[in-house]
Amino acid sequence: MKIENRTFLVSGGASGLGRATVIDLHSKGANVAILDLNQSLADEVIAETSASKVRFFKTDVTSSEEVAASVKAAAEWADSAKAPFGGIVAAAGVGNPALIYGKRGPLDLDGFKFVLDVNLIGTVDLVRNGLEYLTKVDPEEPDGERGVVIMVASAAAYEGQSGQTAYSASKGAIVSMTLPMARDLSRYGIRVMTLAPSMFDSPMTEVMPEKVKESLVRSMEFPKRPGKPHEFSQVVISCIESSMLNGEVIRLDGASRMPARL
Ligand SMILES: NC(=O)c1ccc[n+]([C@@H]2O[C@H](COP(=O)([O-])OP(=O)(O)OC[C@H]3O[C@@H](n4cnc5c(N)ncnc54)[C@H](O)[C@@H]3O)[C@@H](O)[C@H]2O)c1
């Protein structure tokens, strides 16, 4: 599918992997709506790209009202810019590690629900709201394609480490949703892909202790280093441009398998 002159919704687009995605989509001629909590980081992205092609819609993805309002406002912008919706990249996420049972007793259930709310429910809510508009754009020839949904899981969906019960639950669900969603959306000419990175450089991993990062790098086969945000967004671009990619999860992990403990 062509990226130029289409509008993409990117949650978490103010930082890290989402930010690189916004920059690369913009460089390919797209309009991009950043749905994120962080106004100041989004302003930096807009300054680096273009205020007419990249807009910020302040959104907490755990608020269904905010998600619906931001997607509607982005759809109105897409209409007025004559750049129809082309896809949704759901990259907003939180880590928040916690043991299922530790020195302080059992896992705090509210903490568990928070991770699920942001990573899983926030993803589903963004996707379902975006589809209200994406399913109605004119299909592109020759296949009748309307757009692409890209979700972000993690290597922790497969081999979550100690402390990742909530995170792995949220990311495992995203992996599991990929195929049924692709099946639901095939009649509309909309594809669904999920990316599952291991450790990538971003503000999320910047706060990890050096020992933890070293242990994750040791688990990598090649290359032995964290991924770079643009190596993630490159694959987002491929998922959009390559029409045979559908209903699948791509691991971006240098052939690593995460160790049980850090
Ligand atoms: N960096 C990694 O190593 C890595 C590995 C695997 C998966 N991931 C996943 O990739 C995605 C992006 O992570 P990142 O590394 O770029 O992290 P990041 O912290 O740099 O960016 C996350 C963005 O999500 C936004 N966000 C958080 N909660 C939100 C909410 N409730 N509503 C709206 N926006 C919210 C933040 O403001 C931030 O801009 C996440 O889903 C993360 O789980 C990251």
Automatic annotation (TrEMBL):
A GO term, aspect molecular function: oxidoreductase activity
Database matches in InterPro entries: KR_dom, NAD(P)-bd_dom_sf, Sc_DH/Rdtase_CS, SDR_fam
Alphabetical list of SUPFAM superfamilies matching this protein: NAD(P)-binding Rossmann-fold domains (SSF51735)
Chain ranges of the Ketoreductase domain: 6-207
The organism's place on the tree of life at top rank: Eukaryota
Alphabetically ordered keywords of this record: NADP, Oxidoreductase
Cited PANTHER family: 17-BETA-HYDROXYSTEROID DEHYDROGENASE 14-RELATED, SHORT-CHAIN DEHYDROGENASE/REDUCTASE
Name by which UniProt lists this protein: Ketoreductase domain-containing protein
